Amino acid sequence: MPLSLAEKVRMLSMVDVFESLSEEDLERLAHLARDATYERGEELPEPQEGDERLYVLKEGRVQLYVRLPNKGEITLSVVEGGSIFGEIAVCGQGSGKVRARALVPSLVCTLKTEVLEQLIERNPAVALAIVRMLSDRLRQAEVHFAELAHKQVPARLASLILRLSASEGIVGREGIRIDTPYTHKQLGTMICANREAVTKAMKDLREKGAVEVVRRRIHLADREVLEREAEAQAPAQSLRT
Model confidence over 22-65: pLDDT tens digits? Predict the structure, then answer.
């Protein structure tokens, strides 16, 4: 069932970079944006050359990744509902071969480049919000690259679990759980490790009491242990994956 205009406006108002917009601007965006829903595991269509668009994730969770020549993948980031992606193409840098996949049922709307440009001309605060968001993502990427350089797979996995618990963790009676049922292969694409190495590292974390896995969901069993494992540095001359 299509969303009403009021519901579209409400969801756009919850997107971080659009918080400064007036009701009138939000309504204009709602009319110009095209909504689409994607099921878990479904790929978002790739934009054609010269058809750069900004993607607004209203609800759900989307994985941004690149495919490697050997048919593997590297996850660049996981975008949460209420945020945007595709902004590099909108800034004129080209999207390369970055692909997007829904990790859970997701509602995504798209805006053409010219619509965003007109919006920014009328509302410079939107441009400032995008710059701040890009700066934050750059800092996150720097931390991630440092982990790849100085930590082995168990520590990388522990760090990833802590980040995922902060961004999408759900607090219940049993503690914090990560509700997305990530496979070991998916986790591996986020820390540049193969599935076998992730399986071994996950087993190690479970044996140490740091995490539990229930119905494919990761639960934080002992945060202190997990944080200690995340801080472990790789021995010199031993930076293997």
Answer: 999 999 999 999 999 999 999 998 766 556 688 999 999 999 99
Over residues 185-211, the mean pLDDT reads: 95
Q: Where are the beta strands (DSSP E) in the chain?
A: 34-38, 53-67, 73-80, 83-85, 99-112, 169-172, 175-178, 211-214, 217-220
Kindly state the average pLDDT of the residues 98-118. Answer: 90
Residues with Cβ within 8 Å of 59's Cβ and at least 6 positions away in sequence, in order, are 11, 81, 105, 106, 107
- Selected from 2.60.40.770, 3.40.350.10, 2.40.50.140, 1.10.10.10, the CATH number assigned to the domain covering 151-230 reads 1.10.10.10
For residue 39, the SS3 value is coil
Rounded CA separation 205/45 (Å): 37
Domain ranges of the chain: 5-146, 151-230
Domain 5-146, CATH 2.60.120.10 — does that match?
Answer: yes
pLDDT in the model for residue 239: 44
Instruction: Please tell me the pTM assigned to this model.
Output: 0.79
